[in-house]
Write a structure and sequence with these properties.
Layout: E1 2-4, H1 7-19, E2 24-29, H2 35-47, E3 50-55, H3 75-84, E4 89-91, H4 95-98, H5 110-114, H6 117-120, H7 124-139, E5 143-147, H8 151-163, E6 169-173, H9 193-198, H10 201-214, H11 220-233, E7 237-245, E8 258-267, E9 270-279
The structure holds pantoate (PAF).
């Protein structure tokens, strides 16, 4: 695996691969890799001749009081995992390489970026969109792989790629979970032992809401209230629980079948997000 830190060196390598007619899959990350990231790399490996992974803790997507400074940075372990999973190129730019000057340009997927997580984290999805847009321009991959764990992020990026006609296929891959159901996330390391024991309740709640809808219930606000009470009792501070249609994350109409339940809640200092996507049968 090559590790490159400059955009010039990255472009040079990509150009050589392109001249050889090789296809490229790209997995952008902020490092602190876990099995979820590695499943993206393994899928990328099957789908293209070359696999590029980036590690960049992107300051533009963190709010002033968020965890940019304390975000776990585990470069050595990450590199070993990437070598073992067949990565060809690790792009590891510095903040100065990515943002040499204060950035003047905005990439904003307006409506989508201001709802759900965007409402509690103003500017977050603009920060994600600009960095992913820049990385796509640098790597110019055929395929971009992202986890479904950050469902709203995935939707924002799919929309941006579509709106800007970026020549890349975006593929979302299922969330990888711990044995007890907790979605893998770099931020799980912030949980205390007792919080970690309670954390799987988040996924259980999503499954309970999904199952109630699949049994035919349509009283969404009541289902949400019933189910989230258990989370509150267990010590979660709920940010939001929303039942949405999966394409644009707006409230579903009666005929929408592809749904996603999105949840964000704090456990102590740790903000956790998760979601469950499902298809509701056509009502008769
Ligand atoms: O999901 C992440 O790790 C980040 O938001 C991403 C897509 C790498 C952009 O910084």
């Amino acid at each position: 695996m090559q590790t490159l830190t400059t955009i010039d060196a990255l472009r040079c390598c990509i150009k050589a691969w392109r001249q050889e007619g090789q296809s490229i899959a790209f997995v952008p990350t902020m490092g602190n890799l876990h099995a979820g990231h590695i499943s993206l790399v393994q899928t990328a490996r099957q789908q293209a001749d070359r696999v590029v992974v980036s590690i960049f803790v992107n300051p533009a997507q963190f709010g002033p009081h968020e965890d940019f400074a304390s975000y776990p940075r585990t470069e050595q372990q990450d590199q070993t995992q990437l070598i073992n999973s067949g990565t060809d190129l690790l792009f590891l730019p510095s903040a100065v390489e990515m943002y040499p000057n204060p950035i003047q340009t905005r990439v904003s997927v307006n409506e989508l970026s201001s709802m759900h997580c965007g409402a509690s984290r103003p500017g977050h999805f603009d920060g994600v969109a600009i960095v992913v847009c820049k990385l796509l321009n640098m790597v110019q991959p055929d395929i971009l792989l992202l986890g479904e764990k950050d469902f709203q992020q995935l939707t924002v990026i799919k929309t941006m790629v579509n709106d800007l006609n970026l020549p890349v296929a975006v593929q979302g891959l299922p969330t990888v979970r711990e044995a007890d159901g907790l979605a893998m996330s770099s931020r799980n390391s912030y949980l205390s032992l007792s919080e970690r024991q309670v954390a799987p309740l988040l996924y259980l709640t999503l499954c309970n809401i999904r199952d109630a809808i699949l049994k035919g219930r349509g009283d969404f606000p009541v289902i949400i209230a019933e189910q989230t009470q258990k989370l509150k009792d267990a010590g979660f501070l709920i940010d939001y629980v929303q039942i949405c249609r999966s394409t644009d994350l707006l409230p579903p109409t009666e005929i929408d079948q592809e749904l996603v339940i999105l949840i964000a809640a704090k456990l102590g200092k740790t903000r956790l997000i998760d979601n469950v996507y499902f298809i509701r049968p056509v009502s008769s």
